[in-house]
Design brief:
Number of domains of chain B: 2
Number of helices of chain B: 7
Largest sheet of chain A: 5 strands, mixed
Distance between the termini of chain A: 47 Å
Largest interface: A-B, 17 and 17 residues
CATH class of the largest domain in chain A: Alpha Beta
Strand content of chain A: 5-15%
Strand order of the largest sheet of chain B: 2-1-3-4
Structural class of chain B: alpha+beta
Helix content of chain B: 40-55%
Radius of gyration of chain A: 25 Å
Number of domains of chain A: 3
Strand order of the largest sheet of chain A: 2-1-5-3-4
CATH topology of the largest domain in chain A: Rossmann fold
Low-confidence stretches of chain A: none
CATH topology of the largest domain in chain B: Glutaredoxin
Radius of gyration of chain B: 19 Å
Mean pLDDT of chain A: 96
CATH superfamily of the largest domain in chain B: Glutaredoxin
Number of strands of chain A: 17
CATH class of the largest domain in chain B: Alpha Beta
Number of strands of chain B: 4
Order of helices and strands of chain B: HHHHEHHEEEH
Shape of chain B: elongated
Oligomer: heterodimer
Shape of chain A: globular
CATH architecture of the largest domain in chain B: 3-Layer(aba) Sandwich
């Protein structure tokens, strides 16, 4: 038939069932299609398959050979068994060996109840370990403000190594030593906080066990909430509302914005605010900066600065592009600076009594809040950062029946936002929000259609051209640091040139952040993205420059975008690795 | 006269070595699978692979440091610790082991005052164990540098070691 692309397929038999599947797929894919679940540990939907753990063994009927289904390509006519005594014995042995070398502290482990090894042990009915216990003895690495590495728990699946090297192009984690001494660690036993780690936390989001996880801030926040002297405020990033529901059994893609606001109020926060307020503000400041650079024709391309993992990557690996970074602080830090100045003075609250918490889809935000320069309010601007996962744990600990909470709104004025800021949570969203504002400010005309489809979608790199007053503006959007590196290298070689670039450290943007509910494949991320776009569409105001609370902030306090006061509170500068006190090997490209 | 500049000559020697190191890296640049041969040559040059040398190799070949470190810690031939002038490798393969190699290791540790993997304080000897040197007929076997000693017994150790300065 004309116009129809035919895909070459093969037909094989799995446990007696005929399965037709695209050529090039694996036996694991075919089994999934046949509705058969094969146990895996090193396999992850976002990563290249490696066949390291060997739990996914299946039997080829003809030769009786056991092969790893995650890396075995489908073949025409072959017959495979997935559940024979030999397979069960092999899988059980592998699990017993792993468990023999694993600490037995499940009850107090950060992954208790959501550990893949624990789940496998349960599914396989492991009751006895036939092997001598051989727990490892390695020190915990707590040197990073964002992440904790516990190598005793590591099962050597290599997911974090592949994520760090192949997806993020950071390569701080690697396999070292050999035989029983093998470890996953940074070179020369340096701590994660002492080397080029960008704190994106993608390693933690793919770790199947408790070997890498976010540094927990829950206890500090309980203490602040329990302190009657403190005025505890909270801000929540856009992407959190599109994923938090997953932790409470909601279908992926269910937006829980209003239940989340209700839950935060019940946890005891004095004010429940929204990072989206300062996302709108970011658009005004960054839009102003972009128009300035475009007019002068210098400092282009302007590159967004909302993603602290990206900022670290640029500082550590691409220092020559630091001057292209927007000087705008991220929305989290703008919020922190305003809460202890503008908000405090407007409502007559002593800023030294304010404890400012943020909920982020991100582990790098913990690092960002700890940067010594983030104190322009005269205090530490953001006192503590929770990931989406940690917020879910607090809600559970407090016994809040999240599913049945009523819908509630954020508090005014720092909880007022537009649809433009909602889409900050997905790759392309900051660019789209900026274009909505920049277009109207530069041309003085209203946009007919405010949805810039050209920068939407979860592809790694997107490009578009937008006409502004007869001038073509070339923009690019990249998500995931490997893709960021591709874009920057194309600028280095002169192959490409752009005026404005959005970069987010995590694949798919903040919806796929290192602090989000784990193991989200592309399908789940698509649904989270849709939740944000739907929420944008449902909002009355969808352009940042129409946010009334932001307008009031400028009228009452800041003056105008780019004013000296804005610069003092809302802008920042960047550092070299030496200034950050970390060691980075400069790799020649 | 320069102030604060060491004139022992060691600094100059180090500088020369780093220049040579860069030449080695340069000669392998762009070649597939260059890391292991580069590390071989560089270890010949320095005697071992200290941190700063591994960092320079990583930077020069455009490889992540984690990859270089992964390779140097995987292969027992590579070492990031300085080694003695003479490397003693005592075979612990099956034949040598059966013929009493363990007692020889014990004797060597006693004579040298170091454990396996260690280097004597005077940087003269490094004691290492190895698997099968392919001379099982001479078991137990030991190598010092390039020289093979066969049918070694604990009471011969002292005499053998005295030959080296």
């Amino acid at each position: 038939m004309k116009g129809v692309v035919t895909v070459e397929t093969v037909t094989l038999t799995i446990d007696g069932q005929r399965v037709e599947i695209e050529k090039g797929k694996t036996l694991l894919d075919a089994a999934k299609k046949a509705g058969i679940k094969i146990p895996t540990l090193c396999h992850h939907p976002a990563l290249r398959n490696e066949g390291a753990c060997r739990l996914c063994l299946v039997e080829l009927e003809k030769s009786k050979k056991l092969v790893t289904s995650c890396v075995f390509p489908v073949e025409e006519g072959i017959a495979v068994r997935t559940n024979t005594p030999a397979i069960r014995e092999a899988r059980k042995t592998i699990l017993e060996l792993l468990i023999a070398g694993h600490p037995q502290d499940c009850l107090t482990c950060t992954r208790n109840g959501e550990c893949e090894l624990q789940t496998l042990a349960e599914e396989f009915g492991i009751r006895d370990i036939r092997f001598e216990r051989s727990p490892k003895s390695f020190a915990r690495d707590t040197s990073s403000p964002s992440l904790v590495r516990d190598p005793e728990k590591c099962v050597l699946c290599g997911r974090c190594v592949r994520m760090c090297a192949e997806v993020q192009s950071v390569s701080v984690l690697g396999f070292t030593h050999r035989g029983p001494e093998v470890q996953v660690e940074p070179a020369f036993k340096r701590g994660l906080g002492e080397g080029p780690c960008v704190t994106c936390g993608q390693c933690a989001s793919v770790c199947p066990v408790g070997a890498i996880y976010e540094k927990d801030s829950i206890e500090d926040i309980w203490n602040a909430l329990g302190d009657p002297e403190k005025h505890v405020v909270v801000q929540v990033a856009p992407a959190v509302r599109a994923a938090l529901g997953e932790e409470f059994g909601f279908e992926p893609g269910t937006s829980v914005t209003k239940k989340m606001a209700a839950a935060l109020r019940r946890l005891g926060f004095d004010k429940v605010f929204d990072t989206q307020f300062t996302a709108d503000l970011t658009i005004l400041e960054e839009g102003h900066e972009f128009i300035g650079r475009l007019t002068e024709g210098s400092g282009l391309p302007l590159i967004t600065s909302c993603s602290p993992g990206w900022i670290n990557y640029c500082e550590n690996f691409f220092p020559e592009f630091v001057d292209n970074l927007s000087s705008c602080k991220s929305p989290q830090q703008m919020f922190g600076a305003l809460v202890k100045t503008y908000y405090a003075s407007k409502f007559g609250i002593d800023p030294s009594k304010i404890y400012s918490v943020s909920v982020m889809p991100c582990t790098a935000k913990k690092y960002e809040a700890e940067r010594p320069e983030m104190n322009s309010s005269g205090f530490k601007d953001v006192d503590a950062v929770l990931t989406t996962r940690e917020l879910a744990r607090m809600i559970k600990e407090a016994g809040i029946d999240f599913v049945n909470l009523p819908d509630e709104d954020f508090d005014a004025p720092l909880g007022i936002s537009t649809g433009a800021s909602t889409i900050f949570g997905v790759t392309g969203g900051v660019m789209e929000a900026a274009l909505r504002t920049v277009y109207e400010v530069v041309t003085g005309e209203n946009l007919d259609s405010i949805e810039f489809q050209c920068v939407r979608g979860l592809e790694g790199v997107k490009e578009a051209e937008i006409e502004l007053n007869g001038k073509k503006v070339r923009v690019a959007v990249a998500n995931g640091l490997g893709n960021a590196a591709k874009v920057l290298n194309s600028l280095r070689t002169g192959e490409k040139s752009y005026d404005f670039i959005e970069i987010m450290a995590c694949p798919s943007g903040c919806i796929g952040g290192g602090g989000q509910p784990r193991n989200a494949g592309l399908e789940v991320k698509e649904l989270r993205a849709k939740a944000l776009y739907d929420e944008d569409r449902s909002m009355e105001l969808r352009k940042s420059h129409e946010n009334p609370a932001v307008k009031a902030l400028y009228d009452e306090f800041l003056g105008k975008p780019g004013s000296p006061k804005s610069h003092h509170l809302l802008h920042t500068s960047y550092k070299t690795p030496e200034e950050k006190g970390i060691k980075v090997v400069k790799t020649a490209v | 006269m320069g102030t604060g500049v060491c004139r022992c000559g060691k600094g100059v020697e180090q500088r020369d070595k780093f220049e040579k190191l860069d030449e080695i890296i340069e000669s392998y640049k762009g070649k597939e699978g260059a890391l292991i041969p580069v590390l071989h040559e560089v270890q010949q040059l320095f005697g071992y692979l200290p941190e700063e040398v591994q960092e320079r190799v990583a930077a020069g070949l455009g490889l992540p440091l984690s990859e270089v470190y992964g390779v140097t810690t995987f292969y027992s031939l590579f070492t990031s610790e300085p080694r003695g002038k003479h490397r003693i490798s005592i075979c612990l393969g099956t034949a040598c082991y059966v013929k009493g190699a363990a007692a020889i290791v014990e004797k060597l540790e006693e004579e040298l005052g170091v454990k396996v993997g260690g280097t004597t304080k005077d940087e003269k000897f490094t004691l290492e164990v190895t698997r099968c040197l392919g001379a099982c007929g001479l078991a137990p076997v030991m190598m010092i540098g390039d020289h093979v000693y066969g049918k070694v017994t604990p009471d011969k150790i002292k005499e053998i070691l005295e030959k080296y300065d």
